[in-house]
Specification:
The protein is built from 15 helices and 14 strands. The protein is an alpha/beta fold and 407 residues long.
Length: 407
């Protein structure tokens, strides 16, 4: 199996082509240099790799299985497989990098982990990792998402984390990042900002990608064992893009495998503020310390964004995704709210698997490809489970899907 830390990019300045880098205040430059040096050193240490591997296996429950969704496949006329990251401890792929970041923070002598969260999956995973290694944990979360993702907020509190509301702007993921960055600047010495996706200044896009690459490495070997070959298509949702980079990373050199990143087109992809389809509608810019495609106004300020999936409503995207878009290696498409919710119920009722709304965007794209005539095999990264979403989905959409006999 490929070493999860063996990747040709980024360069030593953190660039993937023209994207990435580190655009931070002077007081953070030396701190980020220290984090980079510590990460590059620790990932070569056998003890660190052994400990992380032990936790992946015995704590997270890795390897997560690849499941042939036979009912979904039969209905849509092609073979659809699911990489079941929803079965991980904490219910999503986020635990993969959170454990790595927590171990790094402990090694560096930090006393607190700080982070943003949208849907709450990163927040839960980081609170879990912090409890495990004995660190304090502050999670910044938009007020809107706190209400929408209440079950995950409760989990974070039970785990001992402090949940800090972001009360400005649209009060969602972008504002949570703003809030977390401001808090981090107050004490970058004792805190580690454990970024929740392949975004932010160098080394975070590299570091989170490396930890998440276990998803692709496992899936590639598992798919070969199941079918004797490689999938024709690999599909994953893209907000910041960590789950997608995790599974794409193992297939980047396999030119016969088509890679599909799926963005949220929300209520209307043609109307500013009504979607979060960054790679579809954005342009290169700098936000939150890195250069990438972003949704921005004429003055270069981030636009307001929207998605039914709290984990996808971010106005930028990981810099490696921008590079992969420009070179044409990944095809980026978009799925709207209705298509995602349709897919949420379709997978639930055909396979008995309730997906996260974020992951339902990838399911919807697989269905759309099949309906458009694609007959090649499809491997989807089912990045999270939908426990966190069921109250919201039933309250907002239940009547449309026959969920009416609620007590």
């Amino acid at each position: 199996m490929k070493n999860r830390f063996d990747h040709p990019m980024p360069d030593d300045k953190g660039y993937f082509g023209e994207y990435g880098g580190s655009f931070v205040p002077p007081q953070l430059e030396s701190v980020l240099d220290e984090i980079t040096a510590a990460y590059l050193a620790i990932r070569q240490e056998p003890g660190f790799i052994e400990e992380l591997s032990r936790l992946y296996r015995h704590y997270v429950g890795r390897p997560s299985p690849v499941f042939h969704a036979r009912n979904l496949s039969a209905k849509y006329g092609t073979d659809i497989y699911l990489k079941r990251e929803d079965l991980n401890h904490t219910g999503a792929h986020k635990i993969n990098h959170c454990l790595g970041e927590a171990l790094l923070a402990k090694k560096m002598g930090k006393t607190k982990l700080i982070a943003e969260t949208g849907a709450g999956q990163h927040g839960v995973a980081l609170a879990t990792a912090a409890a495990l290694v004995g660190l304090e944990c502050d999670i910044h979360m938009g007020e809107v998402d706190i209400q929408k993702e209440h079950p995950n907020v409760v989990r974070m509190l039970i785990l001992g984390a402090k949940v800090i509301p972001a009360t400005h702007g649209r009060k969602t993921l972008k504002e949570a990042v703003d809030s977390a960055f401001e808090a981090y600047l107050q004490d970058p010495v004792n805190q580690l900002y454990a970024i929740g996706s392949v975004v932010g200044p160098h080394p975070f896009p590299m570091m989170v990608r490396d930890f998440q690459s276990i998803v692709g490495n496992e899936a590639k070997e598992q798919f070969k064992e199941l079918t004797g070959g490689l999938p024709d298509n690999v599909i994953a949702c893209v907000g910041g893009g960590s789950n997608a980079m995790g599974i794409f990373s193992a297939f980047l050199d396999d030119e016969a495998v088509a890679l599909h990143g799926v963005e949220p087109s929300g209520r209307n992809v043609e109307e500013d503020g009504e979607h979060a389809a960054t790679l579809t509608k954005g342009s290169p810019g700098v936000m939150h310390g890195f250069k990438s495609y972003m949704l921005q106004d004429a003055a270069g300020e981030p636009m307001e964004v929207y998605s039914v999936a709290s984990g996808l409503d971010y106005p930028s995207v990981g810099p490696q995704h921008s590079y992969l878009k420009d070179i044409g290696r990944v095809r980026y498409a978009h799925i709207n709210d209705k298509e995602a919710i349709d897919a949420f119920f379709e997978l639930s009722r055909l396979e008995g698997i309730i997906p996260a709304i974020e992951s339902a965007h990838a399911v919807a794209q697989a269905i759309k490809l099949a309906q458009g005539g694609e007959r090649g095999s499809m491997l989807l990264n089912l990045s999270g489970r939908g426990d966190k979403d069921i109250d919201f989905v039933v309250a907002k959409y239940g009547a449309d899907y026959g969920v009416t006999n609620m007590p």
